Amino acid sequence: MPQPEEVPCLLMRGGTSKGAYFLATDLPAEPALRDDLLLRIMGSPDERQIDGLGGAHPLTSKVAVISASTDPAADVDYLFLQVMVDRPEVSDRQNCGNILAGVGPFAVERGLVPAGEQETSVRIRMVNSGDHATATFPTPGGRVDYTGEAGISGVLGTAAPVVIEFPPGAGELLPTANAVDVIDGVEVTCVNNGMPTVLMAATALKVTGYERPRDLEEDVALADRLRTIRLEAGRLMGLGDVSDATVPKLTLLAPPRDGGAVSTRTFIPVRCHTSIGVLGAAGVAAGLRIDGGVGARLAVLDAASDRIRIEHPTGFLDIESTLGTTPGGLPCPRRTAVVRTARKIFDGTVFPRAVAPLTGGR
Ligand code: NQM
């Protein structure tokens, strides 16, 4: 099939990330052709992504592929693709809850879902995991309104709220069936509340957990330690060899400093997140409530409230999280909800870089 050289594309901020949103029908159906096209659109592989839409960081090198759903429980299917910045790879192995915030508005913009008179709810199937989410956002007069009073840490100003509700997911909250595993001498709690995440105390890695992301990224000894722990955690969590995978993520926990439940620094998995992922935060929130887990010992929790404030490098993320118990007696998520914002930045046509040569620059 000939590669389309002009592709309709909507560039959107979703939460604290930014991505290129496409209708599935505007991309090749064959994954290898689609991924080759996306690499050329985003400007990868190149650490500056100078010849494409990517923003030279994993948080700004993201793609959403959206189509009408055949699932009776969903209006649209959302496939998330992480386009590697400096490697010619595209991964479908994780969800993204920040980019998810733009999926409902995109579905209305492209006519996949009719807008309500005041607000619209879009039921979304997250193709990467098979999990579902419902996003509700204002559509006064039948048009998406991105302006509003909701503020989220890590984004300047305010915008319209996108309320996202997650029903219980399909996977196990504790993929190793243990509240604590010990890897390389470090106690970890492995959770999956939509995003496989390894929780550990920052002090167990000889850092405070309050450092700036840039400083943590420059700590070579820490990076070595985290790589070892992640590879073993991936095996224990049933993910196989994760050396080239973007999951599991790693979250260092420390006692809260600004009135929240816990302070976090999250590796995704090599770069340190400037805030925290939505589903990553859902994992932290659930993890803090696991009896005997590493989070329960550090967190300051209000037993009377479902709302958990997770501190991160640029502020906090509030998430509502309740747990239940499986018939086998293990903890499982009952409900997770979060408020994000999204904003349409650009709607138009993207012109992919030519197929070859990939090399030749100086
Ligand atoms: O965990 C970054 C982000 C994310 C993922 C990452 C996310 C989530 O902030 O739901 O949103 O963990 O790679 O975009």
Account of the protein in words:
The structure is a single chain. With 362 residues, this protein is an alpha+beta fold. It has 2 domains: 7-165 and 342-350, Roll (Diaminopimelate Epimerase, Chain A, domain 1); 181-329, Diaminopimelate Epimerase, Chain A, domain 1 (Roll), CATH 3.10.310. Helices cover 17% and strands 33% of the residues. The chain contains 7 helices and 16 strands. The protein has helices spanning 31-42, 97-100, 103-109, 213-217, 220-236, 278-288, 294-298; strands at residues 7-14, 17-23, 62-68, 76-83, 90-91, 119-126, 131-138, 161-166, 181-183, 186-192, 196-201, 249-254, 262-267, 307-312, 315-325, 331-350. It has an 8-stranded mixed barrel. The relative contact order is 0.15. The mean pLDDT is 95.
Write the layout of secondary structure elements.
Elements: E1 7-14, E2 17-23, H1 31-42, E3 62-68, E4 76-83, E5 90-91, H2 97-100, H3 103-109, E6 119-126, E7 131-138, E8 161-166, E9 181-183, E10 186-192, E11 196-201, H4 213-217, H5 220-236, E12 249-254, E13 262-267, H6 278-288, H7 294-298, E14 307-312, E15 315-325, E16 331-350
Parallel strand pairs: 2-3, 4-6, 11-12, 13-14
Antiparallel strand pairs: 1-2, 1-16, 3-4, 4-5, 6-7, 7-8, 8-16, 9-10, 10-11, 12-13, 14-15, 15-16
This protein binds (1E)-4-oxobut-1-ene-1,2,4-tricarboxylic acid.
In CATH, the architecture of the largest domain is Roll
Instruction: Give the class-level CATH name of the largest domain.
Output: Alpha Beta
Strand tally is 16
Order of helices and strands: EEHEEEHHEEEEEEHHEEHHEEE
Total of domains = 2
Radius of gyration, in angstroms, nearest whole number = 20 Å
As for the CATH topology of the largest domain, it is: Diaminopimelate Epimerase, Chain A, domain 1
Beta-sheet strand percentage? 25-35%
